[in-house]
Amino acid sequence: MNRSVDYGTRQIAFSLDRRARKTMDITVDPQGDVVVVAPIDTPEEDIAARVRQRGRWIVSQQRYFSQFRPRSTPRQWVFGETHLYLGRQHRLRIGDASALPSVHRSPGVLLVNGVEFNDSRQLQRIVLAWYRQRATELFSLRLHHCIQRFDDRSITPDSMTIRVMNSRWASMSTAGRLSINPLLVRARVSEIDYVITHELVHRAHPHHGPEFWAMLEAVMPDHAIRKMRLERMLS
Question: 19 phi and psi, to 5 degrees?
């Protein structure tokens, strides 16, 4: 059931789930959605009051998660334009239009074959396919590296998939499935490691409570710096 309460000049919308329990719990998921789990017999006014009481924390969590949502300057997908790969700008150069679609990287350059000079859609398809290919290879290696930071190997995900997500760089399901956005391959390796490590901690602690932050701090003391760099680079 969906509800909302006034909080200052804004409204906080939330979904309500009543269960046979004694306590009320409020969470904010990575999409910024607020979920309230309350005892079956809790009055509506008590639930609304609790949401208002937690309003400052809710807004803070929503702002926090918004920082992880991909925000990229719209691209024209034309030759001569620059695109990031592993934190460095690379200029798109035209290769052999009659060759099979492919991308060859050299310092500062992505040479694209199999596309005519003015075919922006085909250029985009080829480069994004190359991003996905590189992401699949690189993220598997970085996942193995990041797992070594933990003493408890139970944080190892059951599977890893590469899929485009409109509002997130990565996610860890409660079933242990790690999903990573292929566009994260535009970031530096240190920031890629941050995103993966952040999600591995979620394997042990699904919510951003004290235990989550304590574990992240223990395995990656500079996580805040890496997060800031990621935001600056891909905002």
Answer: -140, 165
pLDDT tens column, 168-216:
899 999 899 999 999 999 999 999 999 999 999 999 998 888 898 999 9
Q: What tens digit of pLDDT does each residue of 142-158 get?
A: 999 999 999 988 999 99
Contact between 104 and 117 under an 8 Å Cβ cutoff? The reply is: no
CATH 3.30.2010.10 fits 82-234, yes or no: yes
Q: Are 196 and 146 in contact (CB under 8 A)?
A: yes
pTM (global) more than 0.85: no
Domain locations along the chain: 2-66, 82-234
Buried b (16+ CB within 10 A) or exposed e, 146-178: bbeebeeeebebeebebeebeebbbbbeeeeeb
Chain segment 77-121, per-residue pLDDT in tens: 999 999 999 999 999 999 999 999 999 999 999 999 999 999 999
Handedness of CA 145, 128, 117, 97 (dihedral sign): positive
Contact 181, 164 (CB under 8 A): yes
